[in-house]
Amino acid sequence: MGNSSLAPTSEINQHIWQVVSQIPPGRVATYGDIARQAGLGRGARRVGAALRGLPGKTRIPWHRVVNAGGAISLPAGSDGRYRQIMRLRAEGIEVSDSGRISLARYRWDPGITEPAAL
DNA sequence: AACATGACTCCAC
DNA sequence: AGTGGAGCCATGT
Prior knowledge:
- 37% of the residues lie in helices and 3% in strands.
- The chain has 118 residues and is mainly α.
- It has a single domain (9-106), classed as Winged helix-like DNA-binding domain superfamily/Winged helix DNA-binding domain (Arc Repressor Mutant, subunit A, Orthogonal Bundle).
């Protein structure tokens, strides 16, 4: 067989999406967290690209992924940014109007599969 | 193959 | 908390 060390982009994306779908409601994870969980090392940017490729009607909880600073990474003024903030608040997560979230309170621990306790 | 781009991250001010 | 610059990884031209 030829190159067996690299999987097609579509498969990598699918793997990333699978990890993202493991984030329980009421919790968030950073791009870096997802990358590490997916075995991509420092591929945080790769995670962003995978989420960008999601269809609009997906049921993958992409909104639970924020950057290392605990902030929404989608461009200011974009529909996605507004939608992400609304969906997070709908799950009981506090999000400031500037799109900031407390990682100390809501960051997902891969060992736990339950929603954040209030 | 070189260069630009981006839903990233770290560090210094 | 906000801003700017360098580093990082994969894609698209």
